[in-house]
Every structure is written in C-alpha cells, then in structure tokens.
C-alpha cells in the first residue's frame, strides 16, 4: 500500500487541476494575482 498512495494522490491532484482548468478557475486566480501584485508595487 505504501507504493500506491503517492500515485493515488498524484492522480487525484491531476484530476482536480483538470477540473479547475475546465471550469475556468485559472482566469479568476490570475486576475486576483495581478491585482495583488499591482497593489504591492503601488500602482493598483
């Protein structure tokens, strides 16, 4: 079982990443990241 657990976790993480990409979550995360970066340097 020790050797299967990392592969199960890897498969689950890849599946969740693909679901997030399909739902368009990357655009939301990118928008928030840009806002935070611009606030940090004092432009936004």
Folded structure, characterized:
This protein is mainly alpha-helical and 44 residues long. Helices cover 84% and strands 0% of the residues. It has 2 helices and no strands. The chain has helices at 4-23, 25-41. The radius of gyration is 16 Å and the shape is elongated. It starts with a helix and ends with a helix. The model has no long low-confidence stretch (mean pLDDT 90).
Beta content: under 5%
Provide the helix percentage. over 70%
Q: Rg, please?
A: 16 Å
Number of helices: 2
Number of strands: 0
Order of helices and strands: HH
How is the topology of this model organized?
Layout (H helix, E strand, L loop, with lengths): L3 H20 L1 H17 L3
Looking at this protein, list some descriptive labels.
44 residues, mainly alpha, 84% helix, 0% strand
Short description:
By secondary structure, the chain is mainly α. Helix content is 84%, strand content 0%.
